[in-house]
Amino acid sequence: MDFLALAKASALAAGRLQREFFDKEVEIRRKGEIDLVTEVDLKSEKLIVDILKASGIPVLGEEEAKAEPVGRYWLVDPLDGTTNYAHRFPWFAPSIALMEDKQPVLGVIYHVMLDELFWAERGKGAYLNGRRLSVSRIDDLNNAVLATGFPYGIHEDPVKVVKAFHDFLVKAQGVRRAGAAALDLAYVACGRLDGFWEPHLKPWDTAAGILLVEEAGGKVSNYLGEPYDPFQNHIVASNGLIHKEMTKIASKYLP
Ligand code: IPD
Ligand code: CA
Ligand code: CA
Ligand code: CA
């Protein structure tokens, strides 16, 4: 079975649904004070699970699909960027990874409103709409544009996150906070961003994106520069050249 084709088909189908509802009134619930889930998140996950079912491989999704993360399983964020979606800010993506234990072997991320399909397979490179990707060549933080995000617990515990943000801000050429971690990682892979860091992400936020970055020649670690897997709660991803400079800052602000 062509798992990549299946993952792409599921991402494109979820994307179509998300585009269709983008301008409509959708039902929104709260999982926490600022942590939203829309009916489109739930519908997208159902659609993706339904398509991936053909593989016979179990699915662990952010919303309802609850496979155990062992052996081979799909790891799915049906709509990364829910706050954006709920506010009609056109920056969100389904993110789908095929996992072997803690490591992604295949990843697909679909930037819905730009119709950009990113994918990677372990050992076979990373692609955007069929074009092979490589990370940027910026080799110092001073010339780098970085991205980050803020966890849903930011109201309760903002200090470390804001201090880290400050330290990157005064070193980098620019810092972006667009609101979809999967796209931040895809953007590091294609060289539009030079680096990314964030605490408290969930496995479905990063699984597909880290494979894209690695297959595009970049580096992914935790804040300490150690090997990262998506079940850890601090990540630095970069083009490799600015990685040490980034972990030097991030390591001071371990969550
Ligand atoms: C969120 C986004 C956001 C990040 C949050 C994530 P969701 O995922 O990736 O960029 O800063 O920490 O939880 O809830 O929109 O799928
Ligand atoms: Ca997410
Ligand atoms: Ca999500
Ligand atoms: Ca969410």
UniProtKB/TrEMBL annotation:
Catalytic activity line of the entry: a myo-inositol phosphate + H2O = myo-inositol + phosphate
InterPro entries: IMPase, Inositol_monoP_metal-BS, Inositol_monophosphatase-like, Inositol_monophosphatase_CS, Inositol_monophosphatase_SuhB
Keyword vocabulary terms for this entry: Hydrolase, Magnesium, Metal-binding
CC cofactor: Mg(2+)
Residues binding Mg(2+): E62, D77, L79, D80, D205
Enzyme Commission number: 3.1.3.25
CDD domains to which the protein is assigned, alphabetical: IMPase
Molecular function (Gene Ontology), one example: inositol monophosphate 1-phosphatase activity
GO BP term, example: signal transduction
Enzyme class: hydrolase
A Pfam family annotated for this UniProt entry: Inositol_P
Spans traversing the lipid bilayer: none
Family: Belongs to the inositol monophosphatase superfamily.
Classification via PANTHER family: INOSITOL MONOPHOSPHATASE, INOSITOL-1-MONOPHOSPHATASE-RELATED
Name of the protein in question: Inositol-1-monophosphatase
Species whose genome carries this gene: Thermodesulfatator autotrophicus
